[in-house]
Structure formats: structure tokens, C-alpha cells
Amino acid sequence: MELRRLRYFIALAEEKHFGRAATRLQIAQPPLSRAISALEDEVGAQLFDRSRSQIKLTQAGEVFEGHARHLVDRLDSAYRETRAVGQGSAGRLRLAFVGSASYGVLPTLIKSYRSHYPEVELALSAMNNAALHSALVQGEIDLAVARPSLQDDELRSQELSMEPLILAIPDNSPLAAKSALSFRDLADQTLVLYPRRPRPSYADQVLAICAREGFEPRATEMAQDYQTAISLVSVGAGIAVVPKSVSEATRPGVFFRSYKGHNPGTALSLHARIDNRTSHVMNFFDVARKFRRGPKD
Fold first, then answer.
1. Residues 6+ positions from 79 with CB-CB distance below 8 Å
2. Torsions phi, psi of 119, nearest 5?
3. pLDDT, tens digit, for every residue of 4-54?
4. Number of neighbouring beta carbons within 10 Å of residue 263
5. Where is the HTH lysR-type domain (predicted)?
6. Residue 1 confidence (pLDDT)
7. Around Cβ 270, how many Cβ atoms within 10 Å?
């Protein structure tokens, strides 16, 4: 049964006149008459009483009208919902991020995306870089926010932010009382590094700064992610080198301090598989690009 014929039937049932119904449908009257006759042949019943100047529904037509309206409404709804998902304005988007991204630009970026696409369900989860890369490759997530950037030619990437590094120091450490800190002050300290594996990782970037400053850490304490690392700092297990944005949230037992010395900074990057060009993913990248540029003067 053609949807077009159902729409014609509903228009004629409401107008009760072939001429007015044809005008409303923006078609000529003969095609409308043929479509209604074909519909009656298809259902096996006369739907309209044409014996008077103003046509009216037969008893069979009255029964069919309710079903026709229900079918048209359901199909219209299906078209709208399918179109919305296809355009990325509804549906589901899976985004995972490193723990340190919970601070800084990501929360604001997510709010911006939600304001543009409020009907999209955002499924959020935290992972380390290795898990992010694996989940993207396996198609378990759509987007990854990583630190440092994921190196893979099969991934689309965009930098979200670049920020300096700072030190996370236990509040009972002698270094917490110093007015100015140098990175070389860490030479005789225990460094809390993350992630533990796989390597190379952010931990190796911190070790590279140590080498650049001319020392190796006296001892290291390895953690699997940022949240574990900052917990170790809070209980006095050592000092961590962290993105400046994490200092936006106070942490009991932890002082955040800037330092003098080599500071390459750290970038937060957005990634997706190159072959994933769904509207949801492309819309998020578009929002991220506009967010990165900031408001125009």
C-alpha cells in the first residue's frame, strides 16, 4: 500500500470534495480520483459515497480512516526520528577520555555540544590512552580525548588545548613550603608516574623532562591513571607532574605549584577513526573546532 494514496485518502476524507482535496494536495483532480479508486480496489471496499454533491465516507471508509491516520502518523514519526539520527541531532554518541581531561576544556566543550544537540545521548567513560586507542580501533567508542595524542594514521585528530605542566606536591613535603621551585628540586624526590603501561606514555614524557634537566628520579611510584596518581600524592607517596588544569579542583593533602625549568606543556587531543564519518562524530568535531577558535571579535 502506497503512503501517497493514504495521504490522498485522508485529504479527501477531510475536505469531502475532490476539487478542494486536489487543490490542497497540489495535484490535478483526475490523478486523485484514480488514486482513490486504486486504493478502494486494493482494500476491497468502497471508501466514499459519491452519490451526492458532497461526498462522504462509507462505513468501511470510517473504519479505514482511523487505521490510515495511525499508519501515516507512525511513518511520519519514523521518518522524523530516522532523519534526526542521520543528521546527528538525535541518537547516541560514545565518548571516552583520560582522567585528567575531567578538568580544563573538556567539561565546557561537552556542555557546548549538549547545547547544540540536546537530543543526543552522550555515553561518557574514562580510560587511559592505551584503552582509548584499543576501544577506537575496535569500534567500542566513537570519540577519544587523549593525553598525549594518539599516534595512528587511521585516526582523525584535533588538538583541543595546550597547557603548561605543574607539580602536585604532598602538603607535608618540605618542597610545599618553598617560595620558588625548580624542576631539579625533584632529583631527590619520589616521582609518581602514570600510566604504568603500556609504554611509551605520558610517564615517559615526564622522564624526558628529568633527563633534559640532567637527572634521573631517585625513585618512582607507578600508577595506572591520573586519579590513582593524585591519590598517591595526597597520602605522601611522592610528587607528580600534572597538567595545570587539574589545579582548578582542590584536593585534600595536595598543593599545586608551578616550577622553573623545562616545561614542554601537554596537549589534549580529540580522536576518531577516519572511516567513522557519522553525523554525530562530524558534528562533535565541528563544535570542537568552533570551541577551539573561541568567540570572534
1. none
2. -90, -5
3. 899 999 999 999 889 899 999 999 999 999 999 999 999 999 999 987 667
4. 15
5. 1-58
6. 67
7. 27
Q: Provide the pLDDT for residue 80.
A: 77
Report whether pLDDT(273) > 90. Answer: yes
Name all domains of the chain by residue range, CATH numbers in brackets: 3-86 (1.10.10.10), 91-162+267-293 (3.40.190.10), 165-264 (3.40.190.10)
Does 142 score more than 90 pLDDT? yes
Q: What is the SS3 string spanning the chain?
A: CCHHHHHHHHHHHHHCCHHHHHHHHCCCHHHHHHHHHHHHHHHCCCCEECCCCCCEECHHHHHHHHHHHHHHHHHHHHHHHHHHHHCCCCEEEEEEECHHHHCCHHHHHHHHHHHHCCCEEEEEEECCHHHHHHHHHHCCCCEEEECCCCCCCCEEEEEEEEECEEEEEECCCHHHHCCCCEHHHHHHCEEEECCCCCCCCHHHHHHHHHHHCCCCCCEEEECCCHHHHHHHHHCCCCEEEEEHHHHHCCCCCEEEECCECCCCCEEEEEEEECCCCCHHHHHHHHHHHHHHHCCCC
Amino acid at 220: T
By C-alpha distance, which of 255, 192, 185 is closest to 221? Answer: 192
